[in-house]
Amino acid sequence: MGPTCIGSVVSVPGPWHPIAGGITAPAGFLASGLTAGLKPSGKPDLCLLLAPEGSVCAGSFTTNRVRAACVDLCAERLAATGGRARAVLTNSGQANACTGERGRSDSLRATAALAERLALAEEQVLICSTGVIGVPIPMPPLLAAMEPLVAGLSAEGGAAAATAILTTDLIDKQIALEASLGSSTVRIGGMAKGSGMIHPQMATMLGYLTCDAGVPADVWQDMVKRAVDRSFNAITVDGDTSTNDTYLAFAAGELLDPGHFEALEAGLTAVSQHLARAIARDGEGATCLIEVRVEGAADEAGARAIARTVAGSSLVKCAVHGRDPNWGRIVAAAGRAGVAFDPLAVALWLGEHQLMAAGQPLAFDRPAASAYLKARAAGAYLVDDTVGIRLRVGEGPGSGSAWGCDLSDQYVRINADYTT
Prior knowledge:
Strand content: 15-25%
CATH class of the largest domain: Alpha Beta
Helix content: 25-40%
Order of helices and strands: EEEEHEHEHHHEEEHEHEHHHEEEHEEH
CATH architecture of the largest domain: 4-Layer Sandwich
CATH topology of the largest domain: L-amino peptidase D-ALA esterase/amidase
Structural class: alpha+beta
Strand order of the largest sheet: 1-7-8-9-10-4
Number of domains: 2
Number of strands: 16
């Protein structure tokens, strides 16, 4: 399967171009996914990703103080091994968070059983869980599925793995890019899940990235951190940060010439942003993607903070859903982002419609602006379903983007009876 077209087409920089294969497109990576019986729905619920020998892994995790045991276990093992992880097991249906000592015990049992079958040290095996908080993993069916899960590992297993990690998602989220960097052909693959409980500083999501270029562990970790800040930490659906958010990025292969690190990071960021946008577009009850672009701030961090605040405003999200170009909500949200700027320098666009200049309102065609919003919803899951908001707050060099979605009554309905 090629890149999933959801929200907006991935922005592919420089030498990179989309290819098929998803998470297993890079050489040497294998994956599998199956139905182990963990979900009452009978849908796929267990997946495995295996990296080649010598791989390095960088991780980014939820900042929530209430964290699932699997998150702590992943962080501990990456720190203890210097990022030398080889495999990650993911179960969907149960978050295994707030389950006391059993949560850690079950995570240890699962990774030990998998390590034995893969002939790996337990410290090289990671685990991620997603689902309802307070519900432990049903261990008998999970352990019984280990043998077929390992037997099913394949270079064509990316699509099955991407499906097995989903919960309330309506669509799988995967992508792969390829580029010629010097004498090397490099591939990057990714998959993610997420639909609700999404907010910056790691949203309620799981994300995985693979790359078949060799990169020193410390350099790789720095690249991943910057990519996450510009992608998964720049999306919001509902303002809630989860207990289980995890992003794991693997790199394995012939050592890449440092002269190509910048191009590699551009590809890494493009994959991460595509997956992040896909999560925001698939927000529970959403009908469109919102992309907020802020320019003219003092620095990139300030621009991103303003963009995240606007994208996360419930009033902005409701106005977009109602196809109401109520621009006052946008500038009000920008003003509470905690970032200094001159209100008299603000300029604002909704799509091609300019609504403000020099801090003053402009006459604009309100019916046409409303029609622009209506057209974005009509293009659900197509290229043209992105509501573009552009805000200029000064003449500084800082620019940044954030992504969100509209807020509908369906979001309330989905979450009002989530466990009942």
